Amino acid sequence: MQANIKGTTMPILEVTLDAGEEVISTHGELAWMTQSIQMSQGMSTGGPGGGGGGGFMQGLKRAVGGSGLFVTHYGGPGAITFAAKVPGHIMPVQIDPGQAYFVHRHGWLCGTPGIVPSIGLQQSFRGGMWGGDGFVLQKLEGQGTAWIELSGELTTYDLPPMQGLLVHPGHIGMFQGSVQFTVTRMRGMANAMFGDDGFHVVALTGPGRVWLQSMPIPVLAHALAPYLQHDDRNTQQAAGGGVVGGILGDMLRGN
Predict the structure, then answer these.
(1) Count of domains forming the chain
(2) Which residue of 57, 96, 137, 223 pairs with 120 in a disulfide if CB–CB is 3.0 to 4.6 A?
(3) Peptide bond connecting 97 to the previous residue in cis, omega within 30 degrees of 0
(4) β-pairing, 135-142 with 101-104?
(5) What is the CATH number of the domain that holds 102?
(6) Which tops the pLDDT comparison, 244 or 227?
(7) pLDDT (tens digit, 9 = 90+) per residue, 206-217?
(8) 242 in any annotated domain
(9) Diameter of the chain by CA atoms?
(10) Would you say the C-alpha torsion 94, 90, 86, 201 has a positive or negative sign?
C-alpha cells in the first residue's frame, strides 16, 4: 500500500492498493478511483488485530460518532482518492493496540481495516452555531493507520501531566487518548452562538498531544449564515417586487 497526500490548500489523499489490500471509510468519502477497485459494505471494519466486529451495536456507535452505520471497503488492486471537504490538512496517524485518538465529528477520512471508529463524546448545544448537532467526538482505536482531515491551519501542543488548555469546542481537531477532557460552561457568560446554553469551552489536561484547527466547519457555516439568509430575503423581495410591478404595469396600461 502506498499513500500520498497531494496539494496544498485543498489536499487529496491518493492510496494505491495491491491485490489483497484495502482501505475503509464511511459517509461516502470517495472522490474517485480506478475501475479495478472492488467495493463492499458491512458493519464490521475487519482487519487482523483490529477488533473490528461488533455488528449492529458497533455500527450504531459509529453513526452516533459522526460516521455511518455501514463501513465501505475498497479492495485492490487499483488506486482510490479521497478529497478534503474544506481548506485544511490531511494527516496520517498510526494507532497501536491500547491506544486511542479522539477526533472531531467529521475528521476521520479513511483507514486501514484494523481501525475501529466509535462515539467518543456527544454534548448537546441548542445554539445556532451547532445546527442541532451539538459537540461530537469520534474515538479511533484498534491497530493500523487512520487519515484525518483537519480544517484551516493547525497548531500542536504537547501537554505535560496536569497542565492543560481551555479550547472553544469547534477548534478541537484531535487529541491523544491520554488527554483528559471535560466540557465546561463559563458561568455568567452569554453568547448568541450558543443560545440559552451560554458559552462553553473544552478543558484539555495532559499528558498528551493536541491538534487544534483554525477554521472549524460549524464556525465557518455560522459566519456565512447571515449572508446566505440575506441573499434569500433579497431574492424573495426581488421576486415579489417583480410580480407586483407586473400587475401594476398591466393596470396602468389598461390590460
Answers:
(1) 1
(2) 137
(3) no
(4) antiparallel
(5) 3.60.160.10
(6) 227
(7) 999 999 999 887
(8) no
(9) 84
(10) positive
Give dist(CA 109, CA 14) in Å, integer: 12
C-alpha grid cell, residue 182: 471535560
Give me 160's grid cell: 505535560
Measured CA to CA, the distance from residue 125 to residue 135 in angstroms comes to: 7
Of these ranges, 7-16, 22-31, 118-127, the one predicted with the greatest mean pLDDT is 7-16
d(C-alpha 249, C-alpha 85), whole Å: 48
pLDDT score recorded for residue 195: 47
182 within some domain: yes
Residue 181 domain-assigned? yes
Q: Is residue 112 part of a domain?
A: yes
**Which residue range is the domain that position 27 belongs to?**
2-227
Q: What is the pLDDT of residues 36-81, one digit of tens each?
A: 999 998 766 664 434 444 554 555 554 544 555 678 999 999 999 9
Other Cβ atoms less than 10 A from the Cβ of 240: the count is: 10
In terms of pLDDT, which residue wins out, 187 or 50? Answer: 187
How many Å separate Cα 42 from the centre of its chain?
21
Rounded to whole angstroms, the Cα distance separating 153 from 78 reads 32
